Amino acid sequence: MAAPQFEVPKLADTANTEVPKVQEGSMSHIKAFVAGQAAQEYLGYPWELGEDWKERTLFKMGDLLKKYRSLRVYMDACVHCGACTDKCHYFLGTADPNNMPVARQELMRKVYRRYFTLPGKIAPWLVGAEDLTRETLDQWFNYYHQCSECRRCSVYCPYGIDTAEITMAGREILNYAGYGQKYSNEILGKVQKIGNNLGLPGPALEDTLAGLEEDIEADIGVPVKLPLDVKGAEILLVTPSADFFSEPHVESLIGYAKVFHAAGASWTLSSHASEAGNFGLFNGNYETMRRVAMRIRDAALELGVKRIIVGECGHAWRVAYSFWNTLTGIGFDGKDPFSIELQQQLDHRYPQPMHICEYTWDLIQQGRLQFDKSANDHRVITFHDSCNVARGSRMGDEPGGQFTIPRNIIKAVANNFHDMAAETIGEGTFCCGGGGGVLTDDLIEVRVKGALPRMNAYNAVAQENGVNFLALICAICKAQFTKVLPYYGFDMGQVGGVHQLVSTAIKLD
């Protein structure tokens, strides 16, 4: 099958990406693969648009408007001020006006006005209200899967409208109508049936970890272990399943293991909870998100661990940090017997859950890890702030810890570090272009063009400072950049995790 043909945007001479001239409908041809019968029915949705698709769409829209007051506020609050128009990486890369956050919202808002506001029912032509048509539904499917839910537009919105929440609602409505996305929905089936997003069964995971142990000892002469399903271990590590065998993800897994080894920690992975990622967030269905997250609580109770640590995955950390408490009772105040049992079991001298970067940085500050920074001298490093970490979570005890802690670790293990342009990192970081359920090859044109702003910023620091390594703490970002960098003339080997750098420099007895 021939690769899709499209024009790759040209890199700019500076870190900044110019606002393009609008090209009406330039991405209207893009459509993700539609979920089949098995994936839809497993999640409890119809698998095709029946004759009642319109009724189902409006019913679910009304249901979400009642359930989430924020959604109605976002529908009513927008004044079309334009503050968000040039903030979306997909608009900057594609020039399609429907990829302006305000225009993407408007696809739903015009239907909302028509059926859920009095002016829209009486005089729709006066308030920009429109009937729900099949063409509109197709636009929802196309453009709500050209949004990575990165929330950059929300940072700049004077009213605080969260476009990601609108995208999530749009996808849940589409699912309910029988118009789901193949990529996300099949992954949600795998994680519930098998235990992880990649469909890696327990015996295969056990063999993979055993092979990695052999490789590590052959490489450095130290028997670093990757324990699995060890009851009574102090720490449960929950990490994205890509860490088990994909490049460069596996290098970070080796880094975690070396850190635990150096600290003398008692830790384990779980075959039941072998996935930190939770695509329920992308689809806007909190019950699905809860079912996926409950595997972690079940594993923690079964193994009797005292601490839960999350590996390098952006949206996994956001779900853990922001939602595990209310979804599973891992945080305080869970009322069901299992939540109470878990609270009595966990050691609350430590954050529950904790990010692997927090754990490693604490050890570095205590002087418990030793490094040979020169081992990373072949790398000139920069760091990409992943969206869900940057705008949906925190690390450490101080505001902004999610920005400083990963950088502090990099500086502790390497001599050569340069940040990208200030306006492209931190809270205003540009998305990798592959998050939010967009990381699928049927959307490769969206992914490549959406990566343009980050590629411009990376290219600038590469030209000015000789940067040749893009450090990350997100599995989706790693998968996205290894695929996309070659389109812009960079080697895919320039991508890796923060704990890959730790692994290179750490000294082990």
TrEMBL record:
Asked if the record carries the keyword Electron transport, the reply is yes
What the entry lists under InterPro entries is as follows: 4Fe4S_Fe-S-bd, 4Fe4S_Fe_S_CS, Cys_rich_dom, Helical_ferredxn
Keyword annotations for this protein?
A: 4Fe-4S, Electron transport, Iron, Iron-sulfur, Metal-binding, Transport
Q: In the record, what terms sit under GO molecular function?
A: 4 iron, 4 sulfur cluster binding; metal ion binding; oxidoreductase activity
- Electron transport as a keyword? yes
Highest taxon of the lineage: Bacteria
Q: Pfam families of this UniProt entry?
A: CCG, Fer4_8
* Domain 4Fe-4S ferredoxin-type, residue spans: 69-98
> Which regions span the lipid bilayer?
none
NCBIfam families named in the record? DsrK
Query: What is this protein's record name?
Result: Fe-S oxidoreductase
Which organism does this sequence originate in?
A: Sulfuritortus calidifontis
Q: What is the lineage of its organism?
A: Bacteria, Pseudomonadati, Pseudomonadota, Betaproteobacteria, Nitrosomonadales
